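Show me any protein, keeping tokens residue-aligned.
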Amino acid sequence: MDSLINILEKDELIIYTLRKLYKEYGYKKYRMSKFEEYDLYVSNKDFLISQNIITFTDIDGKLMALKPDVTLSIIKNTKDNKNEVTKLYYNENVYRASNASHSFKEIMQVGVECIGEIDSNCICENILLAAKSLSLIKEDYILDISNLGIIEKIIDSFNVTTNLRKSILKAIGEKNKEALYEIDIDDKLREYIKTIISTYGPLYETINKLKDEEFYPLIKEEIDLMTAISDNLMKNGMDKRVRIDFSVINNMNYYNGIAFKGFINGVPGGVLSGGQYDKLMDKMGKKSGAIGFAVYLDMLDRI
């Protein structure tokens, strides 16, 4: 085995170690075809990293697409069962514009998906696997986690229009407190959001800060989940490089609850991204919950 590992290329070794990790946690390999019907992607374009899709016409005249994403195919083809959890991992080629070259490339992507009854244990495991995945790639990493439920509950406690909500989320994502003064919202909401933008740092330190805030009773359930995640990471010795950062805002038309993003020193931009996507499941006619993440191997060429 050691001799085999010695002849693997860097990206092959990363794939091998990640697959081994996911198997150890009971995840089963998911295999999919190279293409899907174009309608699957065009109806969920905002969910995709790149909206540029390679298409072709099948022999029966149907418009097809080389897959730019794995998650949508997994949702489409996985049994919808709220009473159990399907745990899958994949390493699949996707076809999209590369962040590095800005041209279409065949990109190997590795990730995990949990679909079904998503409880706190499943969420904690997913975050732990994300941290372990980053650590296997390089020891110098950071995993930022957020809870979109906290942001939603705070905003929903005020009378805010859809357009104002978008402006608030944009300010949070950009960590731009000054932009909040250009938005016509209640002064108390503005102060709450300023606190959220300023809240960043180690897990327990940040959680304890939020517990002291006036709006804590509103978000206690979400804070309890963040505490459970932190406890699980600490129990496994993986808490030191994980931070809470509410600027991690995935598209809230598709995502809910926990969201996270992973970074490797020396690589610009995130190399790992994930979260809960119950809203996407609902949009695709599924009643189950879901959480997962992907590792973008094309971003790792610089390490």
In short: The mean pLDDT is 91.
